[in-house]
Write a structure and sequence with these properties.
mainly alpha; about 190 residues; disordered C terminus; 2 domains
Length: about 190
């Protein structure tokens, strides 16, 4: 039996420009609605939910990566579509990247697939968004085997394809997984010879 879900759009969820008042129970209805879509694994709603990020007074979109990650593997193609859509906002694309990253947390095969996809986007020198690239770098540096993507990260910084207001190369280098860099061998040799 195939699951069917009502058509969903961001305005239909009831957010729009409405101010949220925590003391009013009705103001929490949109929050419950998006969580219900996650619980129902309504992966078809992913693109419509991404529109929440573009609404004035958005207060729901920060939950989307968690909701998407809980929708199951069926949502993965939709998240890639959002991430690769050059007309989507950087916020929408960053949320999709975070959703993909969260889906892969306990799945090494999926984590490698997603990391390769992130690297492919990061290495694109013709069409890129520096802010989206910064998000990709942030997620790539969190991998247990982050050193395998170091060259792609370093090249993106060297070619000024990363928004330095979001993340800097120093931020990446100071992250726990990057205790030793491939480029640091020369530095270590110089220190030993002094």
């Amino acid at each position: 039996m195939e699951k069917t879900h009502p058509r969903v759009d961001a305005h239909g969820i009831g957010c729009g420009t409405r101010e949220r008042v925590a003391a009013e129970p009705a103001s929490w209805a949109p929050w419950h609605a998006i969580h219900a879509l996650g619980a129902l694994q309504a992966w078809e709603s992913a693109p419509a939910l991404a529109e929440l990020a573009n609404l004035e007074n958005d207060w729901l979109s920060d939950r989307l990566p968690h909701i998407w990650a809980g929708m199951g593997m069926e949502v993965e193609p939709s998240l890639w579509t959002i991430l690769e859509n050059q007309t989507a906002s950087a916020k929408q694309r960053g949320l999709a990247a975070q959703g993909l990253r969260m889906m892969a947390e306990d799945n090494d095969i999926l984590e490698n697939k997603i990391a390769k996809g992130f690297v492919r986007l990061l290495e694109n020198t013709k069409v890129f968004d520096p802010k989206v690239n910064a998000y990709l770098v942030h997620f790539l540096r969190e991998r247990d085997e982050a050193e395998d993507v170091w060259e792609a990260i370093k090249s993106a910084f060297d070619e000024e394809r990363v928004d330095l207001d979001v993340i800097t190369l120093v931020d990446v280098e100071e992250y726990d997984y990057f205790d030793e860099f491939p480029d640091d061998e020369e530095f270590e040799d110089e220190v030993e010879n002094e």
